[in-house]
């Protein structure tokens, strides 16, 4: 057992090491060099019988692992729409760690309960979603989609008089699930886990930008769930909600929106991209992407608060709580108060600060697209959001330029396949990314293209 002063010293040392890491955030390689990755082998020690002193554990962690991290918290990481961490959110997370709250309900943590309620209200206000929606703070858009879709299923079955909690699925009226042809893999994962069966999903065809084509919308009825998206991962596009949602609802269907990153457009000057998305029944979105909060923080938002609270209820004789306690809105029973860094991010930005951050990313994406087009690249999408989808003169050159850019250590972004051919995808979502970082990225790609054979 360590004494209070030893514990204090250890935490101070962790803070110091974190600050040193942070001081290098803008200059460290965007992806770790090979030597650093090879160095990770040193972690592969036999399981110790007696354990090591905590200062030694911390030292090894920092000296071996810090150099092998990806600089996703830096300014020039353009992969996977993942964002960095805002200072207020990072600071809140540090304090919350000291609290070590089990944020299941008011009884476990009045502070967490109050903060997450406020955060939920602010999120629905910023996104322009119905104010009395339930907001569950879950680990990921994946987990939150699972929560929303289980609420959808339970509610549709209840309308037909079927008791899902008691009788399960066998013999239940059939639910038809219609998903966009460009639905994110995690939406399909949630549906698969819930037992809907990938082969039984009805696919809604999409246009060349990845949006559901209203003319080809499959037939919907009052036992259908329609999964649409705000922010397609490659193009950043939005399904035509104004057309689709009223039609689905007239048929009695439940509409779920995957808005992992794109829903935040609602807090920007480009809110009209997602016009009428508030008409849907449920939404998922991430904090850890465009809001720039730490992992893992996401939200399940459900218009019918009771539907989510019933589907996710986990009241036990020894642990009852109000229906809208977080343990009754998410998968987790014991849980971290992941709504608190979200609360802190929003409290520090305010409506204006958030709008400015998103608007800046939109402007930077369109500037990047212009520069790359001028530099001879093909930009494959319309660049309505923060995603720029790019190809060079041919597939070999596209791949070679991406690999060379990754090797440079100056930037990082990932590959994708668009309409059957390789492309690369540049996502602008870090609050740290400046206009100069965007020009550096454009200069680098253009010079790599000039140097590579056509
Ligand atoms: C990232 C992403 C997801 C999954 O989000 P997680 O929080 O990583 O589970 C779902 N949909 C879209 C469009 C995404 O970009």
UniProtKB/TrEMBL annotation:
Q: Which GO terms describe its molecular function?
A: carboxy-lyase activity; pyridoxal phosphate binding
- Is Disulfide bond included in the keywords of this UniProt record? no
Tell me a GO biological process for this protein: carboxylic acid metabolic process
Q: Positions modified as N6-(pyridoxal phosphate)lysine? A: 289
Tell me which cofactor or cofactors this protein depends on.
Answer: pyridoxal 5'-phosphate
Per UniProt, the keywords (alphabetical) are: Decarboxylase, Lyase, Pyridoxal phosphate
Quick check: keyword Transmembrane helix in the entry? no
Question: From what superkingdom does this record's organism come?
Answer: Bacteria
Output the Gene3D superfamilies linked to this UniProt entry. Aspartate Aminotransferase, domain 1, Type I PLP-dependent aspartate aminotransferase-like (Major domain)
The entry sums up its family as follows: Belongs to the group II decarboxylase family.
* Protein name in the entry: Pyridoxal-dependent decarboxylase
